[in-house]
Design a protein that fits this description.
The structure holds 2 protein chains of 2 kinds. By secondary structure, chain A is an all-alpha fold. Chain A is 89% helix and 0% strand. Chain A has one domain. Chain B is mainly alpha-helical. Classes of the chains: A mainly alpha, B mainly alpha.
C-alpha cells in the first residue's frame, strides 16, 4: 500500500516537473510549479523529514508561487499596455 | 541537422541519468556519521528536537549567516526598485476580503505555535516567519494591505532586529569563550529569544520581497 502511494507520488512529481518545463503557457507552468512544490512536501514527509516539508510548503510552494504569479501579472500588463 | 543535435543532447542526457542512477545505487557508507553525537549532546543543547538543536546550537553560525544573506537580498531589492510611491492595490471581491480577514488571525496563531513548537517537534523560526509573510501577502492580494514604499524607521528596525539580536547574543557569548557557545543552563531561553527575533525579521523580509516589488507594477 505504501509502496503504491510512494510510486504514485514519485510519478506525479516527474509528470509535474516535465510539464512545468514543457508547457508553453506561463500561467499553467506556475500552477504546475506550485503543485510540484506541494507534492515535494509529501515526499519530504514520506522521507520522515517534516521540517524540510514545512519549509518547502511555506516558502517553496506558497511564497515563491505568489511571487511568480505577481511577476506573471506584471509581464502580462506590460505586453498588453503600450 | 537540428534533429541530429536534439538526438545527441537527448542521448547524452539519458546517459547522464543512467550514470547518476548507477552512482546512487552504489553509494558507499557515510564518511562521517554525526547522528550519535547529536543525540548524545541533545540534553545540553537547550531544545529536545534534533533539527532545531543543529540549526540554532551546533551549527548556529550557519543560521546567523543565513539571515544575513536574506537581509542582503532584501537590501538589493530595495536598491534596485528605487524610490517610487506606494499605491493601494485594487480591492477585490468582498467575500475574498472577508476570508482573508478570517484567515489572518489563524495564520498568526499558527506562526506563534510553530515558533513555540520548534523546541521539541518540527517547526521553528523559518516556518513561522514564512507563515506570517504569507498572511501579509494574502492581505495585499485582496487589497487590504498596500505595497510598502521606502521603509520607515520602525520597519527598518524590524527588518534588522533578528540579525542584530542574533549577533548581539553571539558577541555576548564571545566574551565568555567561543562564538555562539551557549551555557547549557541558559541555552533554551537564548534559543527561544533568538528564534522570536528571527521570526519577526524573517516575516518582514519575506513579505518585503513581495510588498516592496508590488508597488512598481501599479505605476
Amino acid at each position: 500500500m505504501t509502496l503504491a502511494f510512494d510510486l504514485l507520488v514519485a510519478l506525479s512529481l516527474l509528470w509535474c516537473g516535465w510539464h512545468t518545463l514543457a508547457t508553453p503557457r506561463l500561467d499553467r507552468a506556475i500552477v504546475l510549479f506550485i503543485t510540484f512544490g506541494l507534492l515535494m512536501t509529501l515526499v519530504w514527509a514520506r522521507l520522515s523529514a517534516p521540517d524540510i516539508g514545512l519549509a518547502e510548503a511555506a516558502i517553496g510552494a506558497g511564497l515563491t508561487g505568489a511571487l511568480l504569479f505577481d511577476a506573471y501579472g506584471v509581464l502580462r500588463r506590460r505586453s498588453a499596455g503600450p | 541537422m537540428k534533429r541530429m543535435v536534439v538526438a545527441l543532447v537527448v542521448t547524452l542526457a539519458l546517459a547522464f541519468v543512467l550514470l547518476l542512477t548507477g552512482a546512487m545505487l552504489e553509494l558507499g557508507p557515510v564518511a562521517i556519521d554525526l547522528r550519535a553525537p547529536v543525540a548524545a549532546h541533545l540534553a545540553q543543547s537547550g531544545v529536545s528536537h534534533p533539527v532545531t538543536a543543529v540549526l540554532l546550537n551546533y551549527r548556529g553560525y550557519d543560521t546567523l549567516l543565513e539571515i544575513a544573506v536574506l537581509l542582503l537580498a532584501l537590501l538589493a531589492i530595495l536598491a534596485v526598485v528605487g524610490d517610487t510611491a506606494a499605491t493601494r492595490p485594487m480591492a477585490s471581491h468582498p467575500v475574498l476580503q472577508m476570508l482573508a480577514r478570517l484567515a489572518t488571525p489563524l495564520m498568526i496563531v499558527v506562526a506563534i505555535y510553530l515558533l513555540w513548537a520548534g523546541a521539541f517537534r518540527p517547526g521553528g523560526a523559518f516556518q513561522a516567519g514564512a507563515v506570517l509573510a504569507a498572511a501579509a501577502v494574502l492581505l495585499h492580494l485582496v487589497g487590504l494591505l498596500p505595497g510598502w514604499s521606502t521603509p520607515g524607521l520602525r520597519l527598518r528596525i524590524g527588518l534588522v532586529a533578528g540579525f542584530a539580536l542574533f549577533l548581539a547574543v553571539a558577541t555576548g557569548l564571545l566574551m565568555h569563550g567561543t562564538l555562539l557557545q551557549y551555557p547549557p543552563a541558559a541555552a533554551g531561553v537564548l534559543i527561544l529569544l533568538i528564534e522570536a527575533g528571527l521570526t519577526v525579521s524573517l516575516a518582514l523580509i519575506l513579505a518585503g520581497l513581495f510588498l516592496f516589488l508590488a508597488r512598481e507594477e501599479a505605476a
